[in-house]
Amino acid sequence: MVVANPILYVALPLLVAFLLPLFGKIHKELIRVVPGLLFMFLIFNTVVLFSEVTSTGKPIITQIAGWAPPIGINLVFSAFSGFIAGIISIMGLLVWVYSYKFKKVEFDNSLKYFVLIMLVTAGSIGVVLTGDIFNLFVFLEIVALSSYPLVAFYRGRDGAEASFKYLIVGAFASIAILLGIVLIYSQLGTLNMAEISLRIGEMPEKIKITAFILLFLGFGIEAEMFPLNGWAPDAYSQAPGPVGAVFASMTAKAGIYTIIRLVFTLFDIDAGYQLLLGMGIITLVVSEGIALRQEKLKRMLAFSSLGQMGLLMIAFGINTKAAVVAGMFILFNHAVIKSLLFFSGSYLVYNSENKNIKDLFGFGKKLPLTAFLFGLGAFAIVGLPPLSGFWAKLSLLMASADSNLIALIALILIVSVVEIVYYFRVVNGLYFKKYTGEFEPHKPSWNASLVMLILAAVIVTVGLYPDLIYNYFVNAADALMDKANYIQNVLPSNFVGLN
Amino acid sequence: MDIGRFLLTSITTTALAFVVGMFYAGFRRKITARVQNRVGPPVYQNFIDVVKLWSKKSNITHGVMQHLAPLWQIATSITTLMFIPILVDSTFFVNLTFKGDLIFLLYLMVVGSLGMALGAGEGGNPNSAIGVTRGLTQMIGFEIPWVMALVALMIQHQTTTIVGLMDVQQASGTWLMFSSPFAFLAALLAMPGMFRYSPFDIVGAPAELASGPISEFGGKYLGTLMTNGSIFAFVKLVLYVDIFMGGATNLVLLVVKTFVLYMFPVLWGLVSPRFRTEQSVRFFWGWPLFFGLLGILQAAFL
Amino acid sequence: MSEELMQQILSISFYGASLALILIGVYGVLTKKNLIKILLSLTIVDSGVNLLFVSLGYIMNGTAPIFSPAIMDGKIEVLKTAPMVDPVPQALVLTAIVIGLGVTAVGLALVIRLFRHHNTTNIDEIRNLKW
Amino acid sequence: MSNLVIILAIFGWAILTYLAFKINKTLGNVFVGVLALALPAYFFTYTPSDYTVSVMGMSLQFGFTSFASLFAMLVVVLSSFALLYSIPYMNKKDRLGWFYMNFMFSVGGMMGILMSKDLVSLFIFWEIMTWSSYLIVIYQGKKVNKVGLKYMIFSAIGAYAMLMAIVLINKWSGNVNIEQFFASFPNYSSAAKLLSSLLLLTGFGVKSALMPLHVWAPGAYTKSPMSYTAVFSGALSKMGIYGMALVAVNLYVHSNMPIMGEVIAWAGAITAVLATFWAIFQNDIRKLLAYSSIGQLGYIAVGLGIGTELSVFAGLYLAILHGLFKGVLWMVVGAIEHRTGKTDFRDISGLIKKMPFTFFVALVAIIALAGMPPLSGFVGKWMLYESMITSNHFIMVLFIFLSSTAAFLYCFHFLYGLFLGQQEDEFLKDVKEVPVLMMIPMGLISLSLIAFGTFPGLIFKPIAQAMSTLGFENVTWRMSSLTNAWGNSMFLKPANFMFMAVFVFFLIIITVVNHKKTKKVGTKDIANGGEPIRDEDNLHYSVDIYRPFYRVISPIMKYKVETFYKRISKGIEEFFQFFRRIYSGNGQTYALYVVIFLTALLILSSTIF
Amino acid sequence: MVNDKESRKIVDIIQDFARKSSLFVLAYGTGCGAIEIPPTMTSRYDAERFGIRGAATPRQADVLLITGYLATKSLKRVIRAYEQMQNPKYIIGFGSCTINGGMYWDSYNTINRLDMYMPVDVYINGCMPRPEAVIAGFAKLQKLIQAGKADGWERYQNNLEFYRKNQKKIIHNWVMPDYNW
């Protein structure tokens, strides 16, 4: 394939990001148009590559600079990583459409905004596709470095504060990841993930575990795991509305991807799964519980997002095929539904100073469409059928039942009740509290409405007919679970172990 | 069934009930007077009262429900009467006795009160409504021990019909009041409540409620109510006699048994002051309930 | 002093130094209240890690890392026999330094923004977002 | 045509109705009317056929069992009547399209539940029913915030309990098919039996408002428009009963776990007593009926829980009947609300003068509710009592008797407070009888209540067929007589005809005698110590009228389950209020957490890994 | 004493006998004479042996017993009670006050002659009359009833305007509904 290539995922956004100021010199409008074209191309790329992957049943491996693995850096487009990359690029397009006329952005701001979005996209997809652990670190840092300014994008808010917290914790993450890489490299002398995975047994037990813990910590920070996610609510709530969606659908995906790779592919530590499961449970309970007591809408959404991440960790921590499939489903849902919530929610609190939940009381009549879509998103995320959230929850529950985790089922369901409580508080407030008149409702622009409607349509369609995309989940799960196949595909056929 | 014969027996039964009931009421007044060291009215005084009420030259009603209220009562009483065996193995007073059972009777017996309650309610007199609420509240009280007694008998003898219970007594030769004494005690203690005699006459207390539910009823309506009262008293007495005292083989025996039974609420009432509503409910949920429980335990485990 | 002993002392001092740097940096991040000091501490940690990384590949008297077939096999044993410094850590550290620089730069920009907004650089006073 | 298509057609029609109301109100009303007529027309002529859909590797099956079609009959009849009734009732309200759409969604949901032959699709339709009813509960928007939330939370608790059960059943039975679940249930371990059945019961118990899961019901029944509440309390709550009957009968009777049946029955009995007590002290008619509904559902649960042939029969009969008479009563309340705008006993009295038809149907329904002969309620009560007595539930029978005797209190309160008593001009001004379209549903259902009183065999037939699905083959039934397990019979025809004959006889006498001298006077002309009542005096005595009884049972009434739930939820919230201080807002603290986490993992690494 | 006995039907005779033998008394304790009612009804004199018993409401009562003076205030209530009674109904004026005002003859707020306002069938003299006198009064009333001559209620009906005029002289704020029976 000439046109479609995994490398384009990384290269093109980076290229566009750096060329965007130049485009701006040619014509101002190009700043806004070009990213859209890029995202469309990325989606096209995804479609082509995906069809190839499904037809051959093998991942597509691209070597950068012609060095064969394990020496050279390679990109792996498998059913699993490709799926996440696809979600990221589609969500990127939607975010672009949404932010096309988001607020009255000055030329400068618009430029910065789209450059940063491009960088986040490049980083996130790079994280997902790369087959080299240091490269993964670099991409993570790209994501982080471009996220800091995005969080602090608005001057009026406390974005800088949130961003600074993110920065401190993110720096710790990068240090931990780097240390982990150092440990692995010092023992195995390789950075290729497939080879590490193959030879992880050669590492002394102590060092292996230490490396695992360090990486777990670093990736855990990116994946918003409980005690490490102090930055997340601040960042979610202070970033511009679409950026919240970006975090939920891109960076968080990249973060959870890293931790999944860590546990599933890189290391062979069984307790890793349990650790992931345990941390997932703690994250879920704590985040959803705290979301119950939030006064601010976006902060509430942020904590809910953290809860979803916990759910994801649980799904992958169970480590059966069914659970992984469920995890993929939740991952997909989280991207779609949480984006819808962030999109519509940011219009609901558009003019509000503090973004308090009580500021949007009575908006159901003022902004009927936005409020309705927010309600739909709330219905979907708590898992009411026939919306897509239900199937994800059902498959996760069935998977945990298959693994005899009965208490876990009860826990997830209890937490879902908590989820219902705080989401329906908002929905009830939207429709049945009196409009205070303090804040003028702000009508969403047509492009924003379009995006929200598309997302809603996806939620409903998938909810009515989950088989539409269910097979992708299964394929992705297969690709993830089959470690041997991964190694075999990535490493050259003549590669024999070092010993 | 021969319709003519049925008409004959049912009318005879009703007439019997009416006459006996009226005389019982007269005796009650007479006995009350004697106990109070008075002469008292003649025993047929109630007949005169009924005739007078029917001969009133004007009658007041407040609407349809008040018009129908006495009918609920009297239809209830007479239907109930039809389902109760008057005499043991009588070929004459058969009526509908084999077509019903105790649960039906239990329910049928309250239909009248509720119809009456509605009629009283339509009168618009607050006193009536107060009386009705008291009456209904009191009903919750006495129904429980009464039902307990019946349930005890039913589960002990594996039958839910009166006829069945009478057959049991015929077969064993013992009255149920002796073989199931606790159930009988519970039922007996519930009886004054059912008759609404003192101390359970708060429902229609003349001095404070202006006779309660019936305070808007006069003339022919009151006459119907009095008629019904006497029939219904007889019904209840015969029911008790049938269930607990083995029924009666002839009319004389029936009258004797019912009269003796009737003396219990009458004499108790004579020496009792009036209970308040909650006091009477508490009373019924005290010893009678306890006896009822004992009766059930006896029936279930002995 | 034998070469091996020298090597050991060296590596211990490398490790010790980098570990000390990391701990000092972490201590700084956790205790200093000034935003800029926190950033400085972060860079100190970074330096520690970089030092650690670079010291992994260092071999006493090693030659410059020029491509040779031995490396193609990717064996560490080969590295030990051939007196050549491992080039990969150096390349990686370069990247890491760049990233650290980026983080510091963004951090300083944020500090300026925060100082304008809150008129202070004390991290304890910048707590608008909580709970 | 397969069944699933019909469900989808209802959903589609709901959306079309919504759009039609966007265009024109009349057009929308036509759409509503068409569904109301088409639903029974289709249902009573269709031929069942099974249909299977495969979703996510599960095969979902649809099709009616005869047990489900019994309930479907109730749903169809009640909802089509309620839809007809809605047209004039909802006329003056806004956002009609939204209302009718959700109405039809919930009807479709109910039909879907009954059609589902597997647990997953049952759950899906269950949730559709739940959220559509939730949307209607909050539709009127007056003080619904807490009510809606409560309803949603309890529904969610129930639904999730059910979901857990479904998931576990899927594991234990290998699939989610209902019949196979029943077939494999005897092979479960005893813990599995207990767990799955308790969870399912919680799920179904919430919808059927069984204590202590009833907390949502009074509010939800009260706040939704009355035309919907007729369906809500009449049919929707029966979905809980449907599930409970399936579970209770199939599992506990046929798998030898009578203890669970006892649990249901006792829960039902206690519900019946307490809810009735609560109903007695309500001063709002909607609240009164809501609690009464809860109590009535308790009877049904008792019938299903005891699990003998007669008791299940009684339970099903009562379920159908409760749907009918409670449907009428809610419609009556709706009619009153429609004409007077009030629902509080304080503000209404003496409506019999202006709304005699409404009074008549209310009277019929109340008599049926109270279970008195000669109307149909008695049949159910009789069977229930007899089944309890013949199966030696002698303490329970007292509870039920206490409850149904106490029910007379609120029955009287309902009729008296609204229709009888003082006819106050201020309340009756501008009040008139309801429109014909509202009369028809009420009248027809009342007629059926009267007919079933003497000829209950009319609905015994479908019930007997339904019983065969539950495993009671060859249930004998007769047109107008009842028989208990000891062979004692009750003949309805002589009893009812006798009653009516005496009634009519004396009616003639009392009407004819002194006819000319009988005068009707107003309710202001009453004997109250000679004091003339002025028009502005309000002597209507209907608020708080059961004080004495309250004093008797106040020791019980002091304890409310609701306070318990409130304390729990408050405790949880307080806990997390404290907990959220973890996110202190200080970046250093977050960094500290990272370090602590790392240290903890490193220290514990030897034990974890 | 009874002259037109031939004109009366047998039914009327039975009815009059019943009316005579069953007198439900609405005792209106308007004045001091009410204190004589209890001894009349209880064991010493026992009026119940003549079929005389108390009625709680005017709806059920046959005889309105006005025990003593009538204040202008209580007159209204008495009239109201009387009008609520069912026909045939009788009034017994009890004590001197009902005849001519008695010791209150010059009081500003009592009426002097009861039969200006209500149709009295039987007066019982005395201040106050002993129970024996009361029973004698009842016996007199019974005789009148038996003879069909206790027609106070008919007089009231026929001469309503007269009574109303007199009543309205005393009762200034007339709020009573129209006459009904």
Plain-language structure description:
The complex is a heteropentamer of chains A (499), B (302), C (131), D (609) and E (181). Chain A has 499 residues and is mainly alpha-helical. Helices cover 75% and strands 2% of the residues of chain A. In chain A, strands 1-2 form a two-stranded antiparallel sheet. The mean pLDDT of chain B is 86. Chain B has 13 helices and 1 strand. The longest helix of chain B has 33 residues, at 3-35. With 302 residues, chain B is mostly helical. Chain B has one domain. Chain C is an all-alpha fold and 131 residues long. Chain E has 181 residues and is α/β, with parallel strands linked by helices. Chain E has a single domain, classed as 3-Layer(aba) Sandwich (Rossmann fold). Chain E is built from 7 helices and 5 strands, in the order H-E-H-E-E-H-E-H-E-H-H-H. Chain E has helices at 10-21, 37-41, 72-84, 96-100, 131-146, 152-158, 160-170; strands at residues 23-28, 52-54, 63-67, 90-94, 122-124. In chain E, strand 3 (63-67), helix 3 (72-84) and strand 4 (90-94) form a beta-alpha-beta unit. In chain E, helix 1 runs antiparallel to helix 5. Chains A and C meet through helix 5, helix 6 and helix 9 of A and helix 2 and helix 5 of C.
Short account of what is shown:
The complex is a heteropentamer of chains A (499), B (302), C (131), D (609) and E (181). Chain B is built from 13 helices and one strand.
